[in-house]
Automatic annotation (TrEMBL):
Top-level taxon in the UniProt lineage: Bacteria
Metal-binding is among the record's keywords: yes
Keyword entries, A-Z: Iron, Iron-sulfur, Metal-binding
Gene3D superfamilies: 3.30.70.20
Protein name as it appears in the record: Electron transport complex subunit RsxB
Region listing for Disordered, in residue ranges: 1-30
Biological classification of the source: Bacteria, Bacillati, Actinomycetota, Actinomycetes, Kitasatosporales
């Protein structure tokens, strides 16, 4: 069963969403999902710790938001097709996706 996050950890996630940036003390690069290999099973979404909440199912694809991903990498252990890779060259998430994330965060609050 997934471990529940503390309120402090959840508030740190909310802060990352508000700042749209990764935590300064994260040493590992984020992960990314290779869309061409992904079977959109959502196992990684369920496996990503609540305090990070970095995986989103957008309907047509499943994505990791690098600013929310600590690189932990719990999702990698869950993926049945092994299509989650280290993303050293990640690019910032676009505004449309941030708007979606903010709406999701508000509805969960
Ligand atoms: S590496 Fe960790 S934080 Fe990043 S998406 Fe996977 S489970 Fe979530
Ligand atoms: S676990 Fe793997 S195959 Fe399933 S949605 Fe995530 S990346 Fe795609």
């Amino acid at each position: 069963m997934k471990k529940l996050a503390s309120s402090a950890a959840l508030s740190e996630r909310a802060d990352r969403i508000a700042r749209r940036s990764r935590a300064d003390n994260w040493k590992k690069p984020p992960r990314r999902i290779e869309t061409s290999e992904c079977i959109t099973c959502d196992s990684c979404l369920r496996g990503c710790p609540e305090e990070f909440g970095a995986v989103f199912d957008r309907g047509l694809d499943v994505v990791i938001v690098p600013e929310l991903c600590s690189g932990c990498p719990a999702c990698v252990l869950e993926c049945p097709v092994d299509c989650i890779y280290v993303d050293e060259d990640w690019t910032p998430t676009d505004d449309a996706m941030w708007n979606h994330i903010e709406l999701t965060a508000e509805s969960a609050a």
